[in-house]
Amino acid sequence: xxxxxxxxLFFLPLACIVxxxxxxSQKYFTKNAQIGFFSDTPIEKIEAHNTTSNCVFDLxxxxxxxxxxxxxxxxxxxxxxxxxxxxxxxxxQFPKAIFKGQIDNYRKIDPAKxxxxxxxxxxxxxxxxxxxxxxxQAVIDVKDGNLKATSEFxxxxxxxxxxxxxxxxxxxxxxxxxxxxxxxxxxxK
Amino acid sequence: MKKWIPYLMILLAVAGTIAYMTYNKPxxxxxxxxxxxxxxxxGLVREFLDNEAxxxxxxxxxxxxxxxxxxTVVLNPNSATVTLETGDPMTxxxxxxxxxxxxxxxxxxxxxxxxxxxxxxxxxxxxxxVILNRCAL
Lengths: 189, 137
Fold this sequence. Notes:
The structure holds two protein chains of two kinds. By secondary structure, chain A is an alpha+beta fold. Chain A has one domain: Beta Barrel (Lipocalin). Helices cover 16% and strands 50% of the residues of chain A. Chain A is built from two helices and nine strands. Chain A has helices spanning 5-24, 78-88; strands at residues 27-40, 45-58, 63-69, 74-75, 96-103, 116-127, 130-143, 146-156, 175-186. Chain A is elongated and about 55 Å long. The two termini of chain A are 41 Å apart. Chain B is an alpha/beta fold. Chain B has a single domain, classed as CATH 2.40.50.140. Helix content of chain B is 28%, strand content 36%. Chain B has helices at residues 4-23, 41-50, 52-59, and strands at residues 37-39, 63-75, 80-84, 91-97, 111-123, 128-136. Chain B has a five-stranded mixed beta barrel. In chain B, strand 5 and strand 6 (128-136) form a beta hairpin. In chain B, helix 2 crosses helix 3 (52-59). Chain B starts with a helix and ends with a strand. The interface between A and B is medium-sized, with 24 and 30 residues.
């Protein structure tokens, strides 16, 4: 009998376990997801950007999760940022916005093939202590093993119990456009 | 001509100037203000992991100075992020800069002192970052 057989047999199951683990943990993530929102009224255009949001996507299950810190949204005007934090979203009390959702047709995403996929994402957005269902279309662009996810959708300010004082209600849109962009890399790289 | 008209006009001009200045007031500047706290990256992350609510109470919106070793530097066209080493690959302090200018020479492994406004903690079981925004070296 071959004297190398025993070590080989010993390592075979180990190799299988490692292989299976790698194949199952298809998590992708970024700490630099960009979330922007845009309030557009005839009187004033307001936008804010957050470049330090987290996003984790599990290609094995289609689960996707975003989290952003409210204080991480940067406005051009300090006064608006202050109102946004102190009066509207009350970020001392509710510091985070979290979206937990599911990509419907995730199985067609093959990280080995550079292709663009149009997918549907649905889930719950929790912000300002309120949870609301959200459904949006997103594009997942596979490029050299990374997934670039982009999406655009609208949210109604009133849905999240954000009270806008009547003095400025014409300056702030009732529906705010949200743009999301995240370049997700395989976890562990 | 009524005597009070010039006074009224001065009053309106003053009120208008104050309103205009309030509307356009600049952002608090991390570079020129004194930090309220100075702490190591590990110390900051630990406080958030131990009790997020207490740490939020203490640090949210405050100017925090962290002294430590750079883990990664990412320069974007209009922003930059520097992460600081905590000794645990799953946790870090993530510092966001509004411009990549002046950060070109930063390298991982280098010792730095960064101050920025604390926005809180992100992450969960998998990884945890404490985030500082509008940072300055």
